[in-house]
Amino acid sequence: MSIEATEERHALGHRMKRKEDPRFLQGQGRYVDDIAMPGMLFAAIARSPYPHATIKNIDISEAMKVPGVKAVITGKDLEAAGLGWLPTFHGYDKQMVLAIGKVLFQYQEVAAVFAETRGAAEDGAEAVQVEYEPLPVVADPFTSRKDEVILRPDREQKTNHIYHWEVGDKDGTARALESSAKRVSQRIWFQRCHPAPLEPCGCVAHFDAMGRLQFYVTSQAPHVYRTALALVTGIPEDKIHVVSPDIGGGFGNKVPVYPGYVCAIVGALKLGRPVKWIETRTENLTSTGFARDYHMDVELGADRNGRLTALRVSTAADHGAFDAAADPTKYPAGMFGVVTGSYDIPVAHAEVDAYFTNKAPGGIAYRCSFRVTEASYAIERAMDVLADELGLDAVELRRRNFIKKEQFPYPSALGFTYDSGDYHQTLDKALEMIGYQDLLKEQAEKRARGELMGIGISTFTEVVGAGPSKHFDILGIKMFDSAEIRIHPTGAGFVRAGTKSQGQGHETTWAQIVAEELGLDPQTIMVEEGDTDTAPYGLGTYASRSTPVAGAAIAVAARRVREKARKIAAHLLEVGEADVEWKDYKFQVKGVPAKTVTMKEVAFAAYTNPGPNEPGLEATNYYDPPNMTFPYGTYIAVVDIDRETGEVKVRRFLAVDDCGTVINPLVVEGQIHGGLTEGFAIAFMQEIQYDRDGNNLNTNFTDYLVPTSLETPHWETGNTVTPSPHHPIGAKGVGESPNVGSPAAFVNAVVDALAPLGVRHIEMPVTREKVWRAIQGGNVA
Ligand code: CDP
Hints:
There is one protein chain. The protein is α+β, with helices and mostly antiparallel strands. It folds into 4 domains: 21-28 and 481-623, 2-Layer Sandwich (Aldehyde Oxidoreductase, domain 4), CATH 3.30.365; 35-137 and 204-284, Alpha-Beta Complex (Aldehyde Oxidoreductase, domain 3), CATH 3.90.1170; 150-194 and 290-356, Aldehyde Oxidoreductase, domain 4, CATH 3.30.365; 419-464 and 629-781, Aldehyde Oxidoreductase, domain 4 (2-Layer Sandwich), CATH 3.30.365. Helix 10 runs parallel beside helix 18, helix 14 runs parallel beside helix 15 (546-573) and helix 15 (546-573) crosses helix 16 (599-608). The radius of gyration is 27 Å and the shape is globular. The chain starts with 20 loop residues before the first helix and ends in a 6-residue tail after the last helix. The structure holds cytidine-5'-diphosphate (CDP). Cytidine-5'-diphosphate binds next to helix 14, helix 15 and helix 17.
């Protein structure tokens, strides 16, 4: 079974093949590194081998002698130009562009070298001689919070503590937990991982003959970059043109502005030639936005019948050397407040304390709506720990505590208003599809024979679509999104949006929304994104916000086009506008089915015979969403574990998602397959590890594992459709659901398999060695 739409429509819900794929499949995609300009120079960056050290001296003389090297810049040069520090998108911190005075993490940017070839630039970077004096290293948030070594003396407050954030009823939660008949607590760590997009980050900076900055960059948010660059460099915003061409995966990694970008711009300005900077895989893994690294103490209370009474979560977050998480201003811990998940929990309290450490900066939303993945993992793992304590089936515990269909819109204990849902329906469908009762029977038989089989469930809820302007901004810019539609005389047209696809299929799905609203052919609606000279201002694509926000803007703009078209239709049909209705994707004289005009006919008339109406057929919309959307799902994993080796085999995995109205089932299925593969990798393979001395141990794809088709399990999918009541077409986001929902299902399945051996929790990544140690009765955390 696959993802299906519920009703037959003109263009929505069709499994239309992706319009962009012929280009990609034939190697015709145009990425930043494909750009070549006459006279173009190449940049490379010299990086610190030390995680924490004073810089005593930088000698660039040898680097300047490398043939082809044109210039070398250091932090001091940038500081003199007022470009030493970069504000982070979070708004609470700033980040060194090139190290000034000291380095704070291994692989930190120390000097930028510009040369005629990439090879010469890299040789030049190697030849930069830096004298370091090592300083004590702080490699975890628990050491950091003791404040024995202050990492950021540049800040006013002399502490490593970045912020304390909390939400909910602290005292009420404490009281409810104390009086609960049952209570469990579990330390759960969501390890540091990295989005590792196949295309690393890069840019080409060029000042054209008019002195205008032409900036090609792998950005998920080109408009925000334009504004940020104007603010940082002082270049007037009209003199900056940002273009994000095709992007080979972003997953949140391409939201922040990185030092390499500023260096390339400075190099282009200084040398009067275009400069290209493309990072290596190692640079991507070691210095650009990591994700997660949340140490969460989760406590759940319940009565004797397994009804939840309270939830308390206390988190220590490792943010690395600079607070470069790209969260909305008012939400330093993102949407972590969704940690109450799909459950009707009367009282809750969540708090997050973030700390600096000598690690790369980040904390970005890796295929995640700002810390939703951490929150979802915490509650879904804790529910299994509680089920174990209560001696209840994990499915039954969830069923008893789900928010009920009739409770929506549901105000959660931590301040969200969930828009819509029918959790019981989705759970029931998943249980039926996977044959849950048969699996339980099989498991009982296997357990009797001493075999290790596990069934893991995750019934997650997300919060996506940032966001309503009263709550959400980045650097003060409200998180609306936008669309501009123009229909040409022949009924073909284009839609431009403030989003930027990195593989999500917007060229197809945005065309489907326009085609649905206007009764046109989606094949003849061109989609354009990523060019700040042409696209209307938008906040970009991350956190599954494109469909909830830009998708809505597109539908509203299309409806505006339709209103304009109705006037022209009235003129063509020779009736008053009030007598024209939109029916079966055509304009019709009310009550006279024989008298109709198509949108194509109206489009032609808009340019040839508009009557008393303004010629042309176009509209724009900036959409400020009234609420977030709350997609959800039931995921079930079935695993078998080899007792001798600790090898885990994911025998089955079923994802039943509900993302409201489905625009394109094929695209949604692709999103789910991709996200599950990433969730699988996080659960079993991936961790950015630092040793106690602050050395990064996962600097390439032999140490940071990306699953191939050999390891990747077969994915089964299904869906239910509960439209969002406030979205113009009822759609919710879906891109990150599989990454958010799946880690808990995998780990719950492994723990379930090991439960007869007394195992209650195991930390990700669940490696063969950890499982083997658990089987031997050793420490597995
Ligand atoms: O923001 P991002 O594009 O990463 O995530 P999204 O809004 O969840 O959309 C991912 C892709 O799935 C887009 O091409 C959407 O149009 C498509 N989608 C869909 O077809 N139906 C939905 N209900 C949600 C998303």
